[in-house]
Specification:
The protein is α+β, with helices and mostly antiparallel strands and 186 residues long. It is built from 6 helices and 5 strands, in the order αββααββαβαα.
């Protein structure tokens, strides 16, 4: 049932949002030199690496690491990128990853290939068996404002509570968070 919801949601999202996606791609290209999409190496289900698309929010010469690990993240984030991140619109290209089965609408956010600490904690908690999500329980309960242990605890709670109803609630709450931009640090 979950995979059917993922396919239907991603297909509907791409069909309805394609004008917005094209507009955002143009905005990124006009804002700074480089491609509109950034393909990020991420850990997915069972700790398998995959390439995940996002609208590019950083300069092309930015280090390939988590934003919070950068000494001066504002130096690397583009003007349009700041707005894209606050509204979470940079995440929309991941609908493609959902359609292809690498991601789900709801699940733990995919870890960067450099986040060994997060990957280890999730593996210990058994969360690594889940398909990563466009949004997740941790994202609507603190997003960037929570530490890794709290994030993994929320991911583990999602693993225990997951159901169609819970996924729908997380999706609804995600819309609220995206509109407010709450708990986005960079």
């Amino acid at each position: 049932m979950k995979r059917s919801l993922d396919i239907a949601g991603a297909a509907a999202g791409l069909a309805v949002l394609w004008p917005l996606l094209l507009t955002l791609a143009l905005l990124v290209r006009l804002d700074s030199p480089g491609p509109a999409l950034h393909w990020s190496s991420r850990f997915g289900r069972n700790n398998r690496l995959f390439l995940m698309p996002k609208f590019r929010t950083m300069r092309t010469d930015a280090p390939d690491m988590a934003t919070e690990a950068l000494s001066d993240p504002d130096r690397w984030i583009t003007p349009a990128g700041r707005w894209l991140r606050r509204t979470s619109l940079d995440e929309l290209p991941q609908l493609w990853s959902i359609l292809t089965g690498r991601m789900s609408l709801v699940g733990p956010r995919p870890a960067l290939h450099t986040q060994d600490d997060l990957i280890a904690l999730r593996t210990r908690a058994g969360v690594h068996v889940l398909r990563p999500g466009l949004t997740g329980w941790a994202q609507i309960n603190g997003r960037d404002a929570i530490d890794l242990s709290r994030k993994v605890a929320l991911d583990a709670e999602y693993l225990q509570r997951r159901s169609l109803g819970f996924d729908l609630a997380v999706l609804f709450l995600t819309l609220r968070e995206a509109v407010t931009g709450r708990d986005v640090r960079h």
